[in-house]
């Protein structure tokens, strides 16, 4: 990422809506441009709900594309290598869309946008518009269990001085339960992409599976991308995408952003990377409430998650 020399007038983003989905007002203001974004036939889209292993997946994919060449993967930050298409970081800084449009093909792009054909009144079969991006030849979606996702998202709000004010843990817990956080309901997000995989070329992965058996899950990505790498290269990718290794990688750990934006003294961007940390945050009452809501929202879907390993 280019050296940051801007006078960062950092304020927490306010929340607006696009078709009922909470997004920052900055994204809402740019929505007409985001809507008009054109996908290319050789684009690869990495889609996730926020804090579901996005950066992890981005690094795995980049290492695969670079045949395990560490120096190539250190060429720039994750933010620059794989543009976050809807994100507006700062009014004086190129948007994710700007970065994507300036990038030569083949492009790997990132989004947290939900897959809502009905709620957004969009068709993924459209010949133009953003959601033509949702059916390029290749989409990798990664989902994380809701409880750990909630905890990670809360701590991210605390340390990211541009994210909306999280409030107390209790307040954020309820907002998440109500789908009133950025990018909307976790339930709608994971279920929407789960259903879409039956219609389009989408590899749907689970954070917990990657954590438990990275070799197996990375092999799935290799097969999906029709890449064939030697065992030694795969071993190298597994090593360099371990949490503790990535946590010390300045091109992946977001320490390239100034503390005025991401305050790692409050909570590091890459915090724990574990499964089951929710047990250190949920009270018994919160867990019972969450489980009841979870059972209701997940009824009728074949999608299942593991809350612990």
Q: What would you say about this model in short?
A:
This protein has one domain (17-297): 3-Layer(aba) Sandwich (Rossmann fold). Helices cover 38% and strands 9% of the residues. It has 14 helices and six strands.
What report would you give on this structure?
The protein is of the alpha/beta class. It has helices at residues 25-29, 31-35, 54-65, 70-73, 78-81, 96-102, 146-159, 169-177, 186-196, 207-212, 214-224, 231-240, 243-247, 284-297, and strands spanning 15-18, 21-24, 44-48, 108-111, 138-143, 202-206. The chain has one domain: P-loop containing nucleotide triphosphate hydrolases (Rossmann fold, 3-Layer(aba) Sandwich), CATH 3.40.50. It is built from 14 helices and 6 strands. Strand 1 and strand 2 (21-24) form a beta hairpin. The relative contact order is 0.17. The model is unreliable at 117-133 (pLDDT under 50).
